[in-house]
Amino acid sequence: MKSLLLLIALGVLSVQADIQLDEEHAELIRNHREVCSKKSNVDPMLLEKARKGDFSDNENFRKHVFCVSQEIGYIDGSGKVLRDVLKLKTTEIFNDKADEIIEMCLSKNKDPIQLAIETMKCYYDKKGLVLL
């Protein structure tokens, strides 16, 4: 019984673990964060909370998430999803699992900001990927 509990606990921890980006991707994300923090004037505490899965409804936070999505390049200036870019970026991190992850996580919300938030939250919830 203890062995089973240990296996379950390890499984949960591995699912919760953040994806480790290589240095190139990590630097890009840091740059996106910096640019978007200046544009959105987001409270850094809201970003810290989001990195732990607590996504805020704060307007500046919402703008920040949308900005990061645009900086990554999978949402254009009009709020349209650029699926080919999303697939390319997702493949760089998740390799052959990209299509499955996109299908699971790409929100179908018509509001571009909410779409960005729902998509990014799913990447965090399902794969532990922190982009904020």
From TrEMBL:
Its main location: secreted. It is found in: Secreted. One of its GO terms (molecular function) is odorant binding. The keyword Secreted applies. Residues 1-17 form the signal peptide. GO terms for cellular component: extracellular space. One of its GO terms (biological process) is sensory perception of smell. InterPro entries: PBP/GOBP, PBP_GOBP_sf. Keywords: Secreted, Signal. Belongs to the PBP/GOBP family. This is Odorant-binding protein. It comes from Anoplophora chinensis.
